[in-house]
Amino acid sequence: MKNSRLIVLMFFTLLLACSQHNDTLPGGADGKLRIKTATVSRADMADTVRFYGRVSLRYESLLASQFDGRLSGFSLLPGDQVAKEQKIGEIIPPQREALLQVLPQMDARLRPLLLKQIKTIPLTSPLAGSVLKVFRHNGDVLQKGEAIVHIGDLSILDVYGDLPLKALPQARHLKEIQVHFIDFPHPDMALKVAAVAGGVDRQKQTVAIRLTLPNPDGLFRPGMIVRMFFPGERHRNVLTIPRSALLEHEGLYSAFVVKNNIVEERVLKIGIKDDRRIEVLAGLKEGERVATQKAYSLTDGMEVVVE
């Protein structure tokens, strides 16, 4: 009796396992992969020229000492604001420091005259802006030409980009270019084209382009990375497929054509690509159907079920 119950239990366990195995097959119990397809059709395609750039200061100053001496009266820190021609410290020449040490021993009537002969040298900001970096601090002994503080005007900035040389003819006529900020939550902006460089970077085959970035609220910072883009060529009534149908392997493009539930891999030559569709220059015909789902799971000659 116990053996009979054991046999029945084993039978139902085996039946359940088989049922679960069938459920895990890619296309169901028949083992055929179930896919979706789309028709190769004609449409107008517009290329988008994309390249990267960086936010930079337009007005900045690396303030340095013009004389040997000791830095005095200097208290700036990064983030402080300064006005144009604001006194931010002074340089005490070595001769004045030596004079101050012996001054108490001199005739009191000579002291004012000597102090006028060897004066301190005021240190003033050449522009209004923000303190970006402090190199030396109050009391430091400086040599002539040594950097003290970096000041930059954040109210107006520039965006420099490396424009691909092939896009230069189109960019020359643009008044604005769209800018997307990488890793910074801000809507895309249309910025004015300020200048296009006359020279070419021979190694990268790019041309420097400069955009104007107004920054009255101080929201943007030098060093931010941006993606720049603008409409490029427009191709009318060309063969297209959904982007999900395109396969790429080691620089070669292909797609799977589905006919009578059998897939055939075709090598493609493509043109314009956007976020939704791909222009096909060679490899497909209008009206053919291509796999748009599970394409990377297919192999040439595989039988499938089209949903």
From TrEMBL:
Family: Belongs to the membrane fusion protein (MFP) (TC 8.A.1) family.
GO terms assigned for molecular function: efflux transmembrane transporter activity
Keywords in alphabetical order: Signal
CusB-like beta-barrel domain boundaries: 168-230
Pfam families: Beta-barrel_RND_2, YknX_C
One term under GO cellular component: efflux pump complex
Domain YknX-like C-terminal permuted SH3-like residues, every copy: 238-306
Signal peptide coordinates: 1-22
Record-given protein name: Efflux transporter, RND family, MFP subunit
